[in-house]
Amino acid sequence: MRADLSDAAGVAELTQQCETDTRALLATACERACGSDADPALVAFTAPQVAQRIRDERHAAALRRLLGSEEAVAEADAAYEACLRRGGRRAKDVAEQAAVTAGRRAAELLLRQRLGELHAVRQRAAMACPAAGRMTVDAA
Fold first, then answer.
1. Contact 134, 107 (CB under 8 A)
2. How many whole angstroms separate alpha carbon 73 and alpha carbon 44?
3. Radius of gyration of the chain (CA)
4. Sign of CA dihedral 120, 124, 125, 126
5. pTM of the model
6. Cβ of 135: how many Cβ atoms within 10 Å?
7. Cβ neighbours of residue 4 under 8 Å, at least 6 residues apart?
8. Is residue 102 a contact partner of residue 74, using CB atoms and an 8 Å limit?
9. What are the tens digits of pLDDT across the range 2-13?
10. How far apart are alpha carbons 54 and 94 in whole angstroms?
């Protein structure tokens, strides 16, 4: 999801939509995992595990998207070139692994930065409008 972080109302709206969609996804996934007529205690036990899986899948998807970002590609290319310049018999293999590692590291940093920016916007919105602080699901 994308949002203009300078638009607090837009961020709040997107966050609310993400929360609604996530709750629906969680309910559907729990019903699929437990059955439609499952004991509420089983659903309550299963829900945190399913929610964690959804979170992990979204985190992985965000990292995959960020691996293709200009910043991550530039980091990967720089690491690749640096390893090739060092040479050695296995320079290409080492360079390829270094590029993958550098790209992942850059994508993780970008994700942390963007989530931090999103958090800051939400905090400012919560201070301006206390009801906005009640949203609990990250839109990332």
1. no
2. 42
3. 20
4. positive
5. 0.75
6. 17
7. 10, 11
8. no
9. 778 888 888 888
10. 34
The tokens 């399913």 sit on which residue? 50
84/78 Cα distance (integer angstroms): 10
Q: Closest by alpha carbon to 27, among 45, 50, 1?
A: 50
How many other CB atoms are found less than 10 A from the CB of residue 117?
13
With CA atoms as reference, report the closest residue to 24 among 16, 3, 73, 87.
Answer: 16
pLDDT tens, residue by residue, 79-95? 999 999 888 778 899 99
Query: Hey, what are 134's tokens?
Result: 């009640």
Encoded tokens for 112:
């942390």
Please choose, from the candidates 124, 73, 136, 126, the residue with its C-alpha nearest in 3D space to the C-alpha of residue 100.
73
**The two three-digit tokens of residue 80, written as one number:** 């690749």
At which residue do the structure tokens 């980091």 appear?
Answer: 75
Count, residues in the chain: 140
